[in-house]
Amino acid sequence: MYDIIIIGAGPAGASAALFTAKAGKKTLVIDSDQSVTKRAWVENHYGVPETTGPDLVQIGKQQIAKFGAELVTGKATAVARGEDGLTVQTEEGSYTGKYVVLATGLFADLAEASGITTLTGTEPRIKTIVQVDAAGRTNVDGVWAAGTIAGVSMHTIITAGDGAKVAINIISELNGARYVDHDVMKS
Ligand SMILES: Cc1cc2nc3c(=O)[nH]c(=O)nc-3n(C[C@H](O)[C@H](O)[C@H](O)COP(=O)(O)OP(=O)(O)OC[C@H]3O[C@@H](n4cnc5c(N)ncnc54)[C@H](O)[C@@H]3O)c2cc1C
């Protein structure tokens, strides 16, 4: 049983996993390696003068591994609530968790197959998004969404920030108190 299963390892999903794994939550990331970020050249990410999308995605995967998140390459096909929590079905097998975060970028098929309410996208070239509340919750109990699929502006710093926001909200719910992750300069 995972605390959190995150679908997607682009900026939104990897950023969410970075926070949940670093907070000690048992985290699984399932990714089909179709991130649009791998086509990007980025010069507008605060604190990063310039980088390539592939580097950003690769470093994100290294960061989540450092804190113990498990990464499985594959496609998730459905999410459903059962007696033992939420089950994520993939083409290879299934995984159970307390929370699921959809960070599937341009892909709404998983949400649609799982009975999650979708809306017409409002950002340029985004056809379908998942309906979320301000915290990131979808209409299905325990299933949250972050990043492009949640309708935020499609920029790496925003999608990554949205993933972090959703992760902090879930960690806070699991802990029963608002969570903050501040490291201090080593002297
Ligand atoms: C050509 C191009 C240039 C860009 N340039 C910039 C720029 O200069 N600056 C900037 O800020 N932004 C830029 N962007 C936008 C930026 O890349 C995106 O806003 C942002 O990275 C999207 O993050 P995301 O995590 O929401 O989605 P993605 O990075 O697309 O990640 C989604 C992940 O979910 C996975 N996934 C989807 N469905 C499933 C499933 N069912 N099962 C398992 N995995 C699944 C995909 O494989 C993918 O890895 C650019 C985008 C493009 C295409």
Topology of helices and strands:
Elements: E1 2-7, H1 11-22, E2 27-31, E3 41-42, E4 51-52, H2 53-66, E5 70-73, E6 76-82, E7 85-90, E8 94-102, H3 109-113, E9 118-120, E10 128-130, E11 143-145, H4 156-175
Parallel strand pairs: 1-2, 1-8, 2-5, 8-11
Antiparallel strand pairs: 3-4, 6-7, 7-8, 9-10
Helix pairs in contact: 1-2, 1-4
This protein binds flavin-adenine dinucleotide (FAD).
Protein architecture, described:
- The chain is an alpha/beta fold and 187 residues long.
- It has a single domain (2-175), classed as 3-Layer(bba) Sandwich (FAD/NAD(P)-binding domain), CATH 3.50.50.60.
- The protein contains 4 helices and 11 strands; from the N terminus they run E-H-E-E-E-H-E-E-E-E-H-E-E-E-H.
- The chain has helices at 11-22, 53-66, 109-113, 156-175, and strands at 2-7, 27-31, 41-42, 51-52, 70-73, 76-82, 85-90, 94-102, 118-120, 128-130, 143-145.
- Strands 1, 2, 5, 6, 7, 8 and 11 form a 7-stranded mixed sheet that branches. A two-stranded antiparallel sheet has the order 3-4. Strands 9-10 form a two-stranded antiparallel ribbon.
- A hairpin with an 8-residue loop joins strand 3 (41-42) and strand 4.
- Helix 1 (11-22) runs parallel beside helix 2 (53-66).
- It is globular and about 45 Å long.
- The relative contact order is 0.21.
- The mean pLDDT is 97.
- Flavin-adenine dinucleotide is lined by residues 7-13, 30-37, 39-42, 44-45, 53, 75-76, 103-107, 110, 147-148, 154-157, 159.
CATH superfamily: FAD/NAD(P)-binding domain
Shape: globular
Q: Specify the CATH architecture.
A: 3-Layer(bba) Sandwich
Structural class: alpha/beta
Number of domains: 1
Using DSSP, what is the number of strands? Answer: 11
Termini separation (Å)? 39 Å
Ligand kinds: flavin-adenine dinucleotide
Q: What is the beta-strand fraction?
A: 25-35%
The SSE string, one letter per element, is: EHEEEHEEEEHEEEH
The level 1 CATH classification is Alpha Beta
Query: In this structure, how is the largest beta sheet organized?
Result: 7 strands, mixed
- Unreliable stretches, pLDDT < 50, 5 or more residues? none
Mean pLDDT: 97
Helix count equals: 4
CATH topology-level fold name:
FAD/NAD(P)-binding domain
Approximately how much helix is present in the residues?
A: 25-40%
